[in-house]
Design goal:
By secondary structure, this protein is an alpha/beta fold. It has 27 helices and 17 strands. A 7-stranded parallel β-sheet has the order 3-4-2-5-6-1-7, with helices on both faces. A 6-stranded parallel β-sheet has the order 8-13-12-9-11-10, with helices on both faces. A two-stranded antiparallel sheet has the order 14-17. β10, α12 and β11 form a beta-alpha-beta unit. α19 crosses α21. It is globular and about 90 Å long. The structure holds adenosine-5'-diphosphate and zinc ion (ZN).
Length: about 625
Amino acid sequence: MDSMAELQAELKRIFGFDQFRTGQEAVVRDALAGRDVLALMPTGGGKSLCFQLPALLQPGVTLVVSPLIALMQDQVRLLQDNDIAASFINSSLNAREVSRRTAALLRGDYKLLYLAPERLLLGEFLDGPLRALAEGRGINAFVIDEAHCVSEWGHDFRREYRQLSLLRRRHPQTPMLAFTATATPRVRTDIVSQLALRNPALHITSFNRPNLFYQVRPKSKHTYGELLTQVRGGGAGIVYCLSRRRVDELALQLQGDGIRVRPYHAGLDAETRRDNQEAFIRDDVQAIVATIAFGMGINKPDVRWVAHYDLPKTLEGYYQESGRAGRDGDAARCTLYFGAADIRTSEFLIQQKVHPDTGEPLGEEQRIARQQLRQVLNYAESTECRRAVQLRYLGENFAAPCAACDNCCEPRTAQDWSTEARQFMSCIARLAQRGQRFGAAQIIDILRGARSERVLSRGHDSLSVYGIGKLRTVDEWRHVARALLHQGLIEETQDGYPVLSLNAQSGQVLRQELIVHIAAPVKPKRTRPASTADARPGGSAAAAPEGSALFECLRALRKRLADEHGLPPYVVFHDATLREMVERRPLTLNQFAELSGVGQAKLARYGERFVAAIGEFSA
Ligand code: ADP
Ligand code: ZN
């Protein structure tokens, strides 16, 4: 199995795909060569195929460690629908079912078996079935999915993952393949050492997601309307909110507007959560309004949009959450709604970080959280390519412009705000002369000539800068303050609370040696109905068959078949395959077999029904 053509033929026969995605083939080859592998691929990169294909092309069984029951079930469903002998063992099964599956494993009935780590590491499993397999039919490889779970530096540390190196000690000859969508170097080195990987073939795929359109929209009284337009534009989507209460409120409001949507957060009981998630996966509802508790365990590849109604806590979090859109490679839209009030909310939440026993502020945690918030604000207020900002944060260089973010598609012009910058800095300087340092709120009050208690009681109304900035609104001044901070023209330090001070750069501005350019805040506007089609790479929106009568008819057929088989619709076929059906109108099984996404098993299982439907439509 070394020629490119042979591997591709297998890819098509088994999975129905015409081509490997970037990086997939190289991983497959190293896995087939029996090497240890560490593969870092973004969500939607197609990690599963990298170990599934080698598993099927080798004689023994491949054991896959996966942290979440929902993920295992989903993957096994997908595999079984492709007629691949796969199964899972985890705590959702009763003892009888576990022994039935263990016996099947030993008989050689499975090519792939998914296991929860605690199950695999159980003494009786290690000494029993595992040893028997190793001595008998052979274990091709141990696959460690979501490998960042071994690292305390990752965002999802699992204690059980730590013991997985036991596998290496017990089965030194068996290759280990580790996969993750977490890119940070610290996590990467942790994976290699914790799993005791042996000179692993390192595969790093770019974390750029070219099919995602990124945009930041100002929060205003039009925001809900904008969101509604987005939702009514169609496609499955997720709205992320910061708190449970906001989730419940927004879900109710959308339901009131006739949208089929369910809430999801940790305050709901387990059954409701599962029901709501399942309804989303099966396309029984269009959208989920959720806290960030939602998303880890779902593989739904056809999420067409992700909207953040509140500020995310970290930029990496934003990358991961928005990255749940468009895993199938089709165009999808990621929107972050952002307003000045959100900064105050986030700042308030950070101030709440106190020690649970003593009530002392957790200084270090607050410091980190503030730094993270700063990065999020940087992203939200930047005029730079959104991808470039995100990828730089993930340690990757991206050459802007990208053609699929708001800043690249509709650049905002920067304006000269030097006068305001000087006024702001002068105020800091005047206070400093009195030996005082304050945060932005006090400075803005002084500039705007506020007659507030905190200004008057300190005699700040006698400063020469008092009232010189009346013409600008509070929000405009906040915008200036943040921009000066981002551009490094002033400093923020902690003095119990954040206070501002001048630095060397400020001097240049004050002496008028440096012009301060600040991008105008984006104005709220009514958006065009957000058709995700216009984010499609290549911009072939006009030719999009979505919405055509045939497409809708095939989509309905897919839903019927999916319900008959108890599967999510995307397991039957991806949208891309339905689109090809509309474009090519296959009328025979041979023609149908050529479609991307149609492999041997799917041809046999669904071919006739779809060909018949297309025939009827074309008659
Ligand atoms: P990840 O775990 O990296 O997010 P998955 O393995 O779940 O990615 O794959 C994401 C989606 O991409 C799945 O729906 C899968 O069927 C699809 N996919 C994977 N490889 C290919 C390919 N070569 N061609 C087309 N679709 C693919
Ligand atoms: Zn861009």
